[in-house]
Amino acid sequence: MIDTHIHADSRTSEDFEKMFISGIDTAITCSYYPYKINNNPEILLNHLNRILNFDPKRAKEYGLDLKVALGIHPTNSLKNNEIIFEQLEKWIENKEIVAIGEIGLDENSDLEKKVFKKQLELAENTKSKVIIHTPRKNKLKVLSEIKEIVLENINPKLVVIDHINLNTVEELIDEEFTIGLTVQPQKMEVEEAIEILDKYGFDKFLLNSDISNKPSDPLSVPRTIRTLKRLGYDEKEINKLAFKNAKKFFKI
Ligand SMILES: [Zn+2]
């Protein structure tokens, strides 16, 4: 199984062990710095370097293959971002990251939009995959802005839009985006994810736990996959969600 969106830097080694033992072979860790940055790019750069240089080794000790996505999370948007972009270009060139992420809009401020667009341009120019965050609050309204910006700036085939639920899936289903389902306490239960899959099929979706410093379930991917199995869903369809769609999309 592949958990397509986690925040390994805020989780313990015990989580990695549980995930691996429960059948997760690979996870993709995304950047999100949960503290104040004060427009200081050095703080963010430290955070990104820590993810890249430290967490994959930590996870590997427990068997978990941790891939890395780096970028400027919308809540970490900063004006002074040149050194971050310089580094992002190098990481992409050296194939050290599998995607730019997570990026997107949260409070929908002008600065967030500016930084978001700049990262989409970089992704389009380098043909990088992007993992896009959608907020907990005002999800549908912000999502329609995100969709508009994405369609103007990048090939939608490079994009996964994440944390989509029953209320927002209609907005994306007819587009060429890949759609991320996040099963996490306070975000979405297993049953809601299954309702979406029942309605729209398994082809367009990736699955993740988004484990972070917020309430999280490191086993939400195996919980969802095994529930589908218990309920008698077709093995081929389950495998798409468990790993095949993610392998194809991220080329991992
Ligand atoms: Zn996240």
Provide an overview of this structure:
This protein has 252 residues and is an alpha/beta fold. It has helices spanning 13-21, 41-60, 82-93, 110-126, 139-153, 190-200, 220-230, 235-250; strands spanning 2-6, 26-29, 65-70, 99-104, 130-133, 159-161, 178-182, 205-208. It has an eight-stranded parallel β-sheet. Pfam families: TatD_DNase. One of its GO terms (molecular function) is metal ion binding.
Short description:
The protein has 252 residues and is of the alpha/beta class. It has helices at residues 13-21, 41-60, 82-93, 110-126, 139-153, 190-200, 220-230, 235-250, and strands spanning 2-6, 26-29, 65-70, 99-104, 130-133, 159-161, 178-182, 205-208.
Distance between the termini: 12 Å
Element string (H = helix, E = strand): EHEHEHEHEHEEHEHH
Shape: globular
Number of strands: 8
Q: Which secondary-structure class do the elements indicate?
A: alpha/beta
Q: How many independent structural domains?
A: 1
Assign a percent range to the helix content: 40-55%
GO molecular function: hydrolase activity, acting on ester bonds; metal ion binding
InterPro entries: Metal_Hydrolase, TatD-like, UCP005295
Pfam families: TatD_DNase (PF01026)
Family: Belongs to the metallo-dependent hydrolases superfamily.
